[in-house]
Amino acid sequence: MESTVIVLFAEKMNSARKTMTTTTQMGPVKIMHSFHIDDSRSVHVDEDNDVTIVDEWDNGKRAFFIARRWVRFVQEMPSIDKAVQRAITYKLTTFQLHIGGQWYVGVSERFQNFDICRWFIRVGFDSILRPTTSGISLTFAQWANLKKVAEQMNDQLPQFTCYLAMLA
């Protein structure tokens, strides 16, 4: 079970950012780097190189990536972007991609959004893949900003470049 403590601190540029310490079964995890997607969404990298996309309004919406899952997600960004570009023009788009664990990425032209969500199968009942409430939804503008954040992370955090090279 995770519990999250949010601490606000002021920065030089007259803005407030959130620093997060997460306590898991393994103990507390400290956020080492933060990147802003926009005013309501941010990407945090913790000391274990795990990545979390969070809703800054603290409504509990977040998507968690272990380092390998983040790298897989970044590698799949071109195919995800093709689906997003089709959805922007309201062309019928059914896109769902497994990125590891129980996490999937989906694009919807109907709602004009991009979802990163945990899914499950009700074993012994109907064996249909169903979404949970764990995850986060991004607008297409936020998706464009997330791609830029991924590039910044690749440039500023050499450990992710190493992961990408190992998986290539």
Overview of this structure, please?
There is one protein chain. By secondary structure, the chain is an alpha+beta fold. The chain has a single domain (about 5-160), classed as Transcriptional Co-activator pc4, Chain A, CATH 2.30.31.10. It has four helices and ten strands. Strands 1-2-3-4-5-6 form a six-stranded antiparallel beta sheet. A four-stranded antiparallel beta sheet has the order 7-8-9-10. Strand 7 (about 95-100) and strand 8 (about 105-110) form a beta hairpin. The longest helix has 17 residues, at about 140-155.
Largest sheet: 6 strands, antiparallel
Work out the helix count. 4
Give the CATH level 1 class.
Answer: Mainly Beta
Calculate the terminal CA-CA distance, rounded to whole Å: 34 Å
Query: Unreliable segments (pLDDT under 50, ≥5 consecutive)?
Result: 1-20, 22-26
Tell me the β content.
35-45%
Question: How many domains comprise the coordinates?
Answer: 1
Helix content: 25-40%
Question: Considering the protein shown, what is the CATH homologous superfamily?
Answer: Transcriptional Coactivator Pc4, Chain A
CATH topology: Transcriptional Co-activator pc4, Chain A
Integer-rounded radius of gyration: 16 Å
Q: Give the beta-strand count.
A: 10
CATH architecture verdict: Roll
Structural class: alpha+beta
Helix/strand order = EEEEEEHHEEEEHH
Shape: globular
Mean pLDDT, as a whole number? 77
How would you write the strand order of the largest sheet? 1-2-3-4-5-6
